[in-house]
Design a protein that fits this description.
- Helix content is 30%, strand content 21%.
- It has 236 residues and is an alpha/beta fold.
- The chain contains eight helices and ten strands.
- It is globular, with a radius of gyration of 19 Å.
- Helix 3 packs parallel to helix 7.
- The two termini are 37 Å apart.
């Protein structure tokens, strides 16, 4: 269990942990109680009513945040020939088109944020599942990271612009970053609204009852604030 320091508990005193905040107010409060000496990441945690043990109640989707994530996104592409040329032209940071790069990843190198692959390279990608899988870096068609060469430029552009993959975890929760605390309140709110819309649209057909049970926003070092996910301000 993480241990919190004195400043964290001082920040806790400034909020009402039982209150369900309006989204705009929650972001304002989160910024006001920040005490870290670095630009914290703002995160959203969604508690769902889904049963992650059921195959028809899974969620895996993506959202392009309108204001990005506030950091450079390093993109690696598995491609050869035309696909590799398209990736280079679109600004990919690394291209896996040789055994040397495959071996490097097999040995544990994962200094990239997003991995994209062309379909013909999925055999190679599969061999790296033990390295990529646990880190959430496996290319996947549902996440839009397995693409044909002629769609490569769009995939890389979206990844670098703030394209975030989200999925249901084993505890029926969804966790994503939505930007930096240095963002304006408006920019963070727009990103939050875009993410919540994407979650609602990703609701499985088999879901029943209360789909979204609780939404919390927090920062890297800050306290969590419950958010009114039914607020009209979260409807784009």
């Amino acid at each position: 269990m993480a241990r919190h320091g004195k400043k964290y508990f001082e920040a806790i005193k400034k909020i009402d942990r039982d209150q369900v905040y309006d989204p705009v107010e929650a972001i304002k409060v989160l910024k006001s109680v920040s005490y870290a000496n670095f630009d914290e990441t703002v995160e959203v945690h969604v508690r769902t009513g889904l049963d992650p043990r059921q195959a028809d109640q899974q969620i895996r989707d993506v959202v392009v945040l309108p204001n990005g994530l506030g950091k450079p996104v390093v993109v690696l592409v598995f491609a050869q020939g035309e696909g590799a040329d398209a990736a280079r032209a679109a600004g990919a940071d690394f291209i896996v088109d040789s055994e040397e790069m495959v071996t490097k990843i097999q040995n544990g190198w994962t200094e990239f944020d997003v991995a994209i692959a062309t379909p013909d390279m999925m055999g190679t990608v599969g061999k790296l599942g033990r390295v990529l899988g646990p880190r959430g870096l496996m290319p996947n068609p549902k996440a839009g990271t397995v693409v044909q060469a002629d769609n490569m430029a769009v995939a890389i552009e979206e990844a670098k612009a703030g394209r975030v993959e989200f999925r249901l975890d084993r505890t029926a929760n969804i966790h994503v970053p939505i930007g930096k605390l240095s963002f304006t309140e408006e920019a963070l709110h727009e990103n939050l609204a875009a993410f919540m819309l994407a979650v609602r649209q990703a609701r499985p057909a088999a879901a029943s009852g209360n789909f979204i049970r609780r939404v919390t926003v927090t920062s890297s070092m800050g306290p969590g604030l419950k958010v009114d996910h039914n607020s009209p301000s979260l409807v784009l």
